[in-house]
Design a protein that fits this description.
Keywords: Membrane, Transmembrane, Transmembrane helix. 78% of the residues lie in helices and 0% in strands. The protein is mostly helical and 82 residues long. The protein has one domain. The chain is flat.
């Protein structure tokens, strides 16, 4: 689903709907790819695809934005100590 940021909110319903359609298409293609990989006995590759999707979905949410900001702050602090 489309996720706006604090600085750039997605308010136009037509843009949101278009992004939802694109998201649905991408998820459908990824799902078909996962099924193909599993049927071809490539479970490790399918697992990698699933982890990539989950990571992307988490990072696109407001919680993901906050987590990335916290991680960035931690890395900035760690970088100054080196």
């Amino acid at each position: 689903m489309p996720a706006g940021t604090a600085k750039k909110q997605i308010k136009d319903e037509s843009i949101r709907m278009e992004q939802r359609k694109k998201t649905f298409l991408v998820l459908t293609v990824w799902s078909v790819l996962i099924v193909i990989l599993i049927t071809q006995k490539m479970a490790a590759d399918a697992f990698a695809v699933i982890l990539g999707i989950l990571g992307s979905l988490i990072l696109m949410t407001p919680l993901g934005y906050k987590a990335a900001k916290v991680l960035d702050s931690i890395l900035n602090i760690a970088g100054k100590e080196v």
